[in-house]
């Protein structure tokens, strides 16, 4: 579990559950080399994992587009972290010219977990939907939709989501049917909607912005606190409001 007290600046706007979700993205999906950093090699590894899962050839348009998106996403991550570093450096008192040059000569080449959480805290603050995020974040649900839509018919079925949970995310077999059924129910409003790109974008935005365990977004990857499957929603009353 991440030490919330060690996360600085904009990450203070994230709830513990958001920190859990973004930490999962960092550790399990983006830091594939498991060195506590997101580097460009991790982007290539994630694109390759998507390629193998989807059965794309290395020269396919789907794979080349995914590589391009991962490259742009990483470059924007670095730019965002560099901006934060520059803003922080302006607030610091740099005592010597040598120290000033040192600051300037150290470009960011990889993203730490704290930088990652801080970035998401800033992006989520004041956002209400996927269109409030920059375009390089909006590309993520499009890439994941293409991966999950294994049949390439422009909507995701429950069997496709079950396969994604099992073979891409790695949900244990004993939990697979239960989470697949509840997750698909939540993301389609009980079957009232098909899970096309537009509705998946909504669920992905809820994944990013959802501050508690209730909501369809947490089932985009399906690995979080799922006790709400068996428990009734608990209303928390504030005794001060009853006076």
How does this structure look, described?
This protein has 243 residues and is mostly helical. The protein folds into two domains: 7-125, Recoverin, domain 1 (Orthogonal Bundle), CATH 1.10.238.10; 135-216, Orthogonal Bundle (Recoverin, domain 1). Helices cover 56% and strands 0% of the residues. It is built from nine helices and no strands. The chain has helices spanning 16-30, 40-54, 61-91, 97-104, 113-124, 135-148, 158-169, 173-187, 197-209. The longest helix is centred in the first third of the chain and has 31 residues, at 61-91. The chain is globular, with a radius of gyration of 20 Å.
Report the average pLDDT across residues. Answer: 86
Shape category: globular
Number of strands: 0
- Helicity level: 55-70%
CATH second-level architecture of the largest domain: Orthogonal Bundle
Task: Produce a short descriptive summary.
The protein is mainly alpha-helical. The chain is 56% helix and 0% strand. The chain is globular.
